[in-house]
Fold this protein.
Amino acid sequence: MSAKSNTAGLDVRRAAAQRLQLVLTGAPFIPFGADDFEDGRERALANRLVTTALRRHGQINQVLVSVLDKGMPKRAGLFEPAMRIGIAQLLFMPEQGAHAALHLAVETIKRDRRASRFAKLANAALRSVQRQADDWPLRVQDLVPEWMFKRWTKQYGETQAHKMAELLLAQPPLDLVFKSGVEPQTGANGFDGLAALLPQSFRLATRDASVADLPDYADGQWWVQDLSSTLPARLAGSLVGKKVLDLCAAPGGKTAQLCDMGGLVTAVEIEPDRLSRLKENLERLNFHAEMLEADATQLDGLDEFDVVMLDAPCSATGTFRRHPEVLWHRKESDFAHRAALQSEMLGSAAKKVAKGGQLIYCTCSLEPEEGENQIEQFLKQHSEFALAPIKSDELAGWAGPIDLNGYVRALPCVELPNGCTGGTDGFFAARLQRVA
Ligand SMILES: C[S@@+](CC[C@H](N)C(=O)[O-])C[C@H]1O[C@@H](n2cnc3c(N)ncnc32)[C@H](O)[C@@H]1O
């Protein structure tokens, strides 16, 4: 970090407050890397401070309301993020020590030009939090915005809504997909604590090492992909020798699966930077696909395909375990807007499916507007397509994420194969067949 301060731990708190500030203004959280902190322990602490503040964002809101009588001061620079980091430590990271948490939060505020005039207020408010540290009524439903918790309850029932919110309390595990025919190495130089989820999908018990330091990374034997995100490609069946169109492809988890399954893949992505990442990822894995920088709503020049996969851009509310900020960045009115684009993309994708071929539509969203409603509307307008319901034997007998209509509706709290814990991303997928 630039301009090191001489107070132990202050640089880490200031950097964490600055990063959290960006997230509070609408940016996604980008974890600190080696460029930010050379020291691995400092880096890990800075990331933990921000992620704890984000996971507990809703509960911290309640605490802030209670200790700031006049509300959050306006135009106060790092005041709000430093307070959030301070409260996160006082209530949820007690091992950091209450005195240090309080002192470093107030110091961060004192050293920020806009925030400094509120240092006394911060001190008094944080002391109040500390005094009542064991008495805050921390409710699980407060982890999620009220409107969203109501939505989850309406859609999936209160028990499921609670279970989903609870997943915010822990760091999500890391899932890996191994190339077909590759057995993960365990033992001295291999993986430690790898649990089997579904064929080729495994869950790492701990994620202390960075991804690139895990065994066989450079050899391209596996890639990172959350379990539920692997489900859509599994629905395509055998792809050997088949032409596959992968729309909205970067960073390429599904592209990798489709290549691994033997498909002749054309991958389409609109964002040049993301397309470059897709290329790098496939190169590391030694997979080959034709890659096009193009808009999935403008596919006129392309032929028809046996399988078209549309992993449409969406609200990503299903990824809240890994990206808690999505819960706070979304508004209920966002869903209709995104649904209109998804519907346009579905129409465009449908034109590229050969007769008898499959269209697989998926989103990492928990919202019916981006899932079930989308498919119902599509089928009303496209009599040349029929729903091809998904069966549990296609997912190695795992029935948990399949609903009564034959859609994949994976809830983050779904019971996982082999008793694994840690949840999964929320995902929706439907398989449609072109029948005329
Ligand atoms: C949900 S992500 C896809 C994840 C990817 N399929 C995977 O498995 O790794 C959605 C992607 O769609 C891309 N995208 C958004 N609008 C697009 C469009 N009109 N045409 C093509 N790609 C688009 C985004 O840049 C983003 O990379």
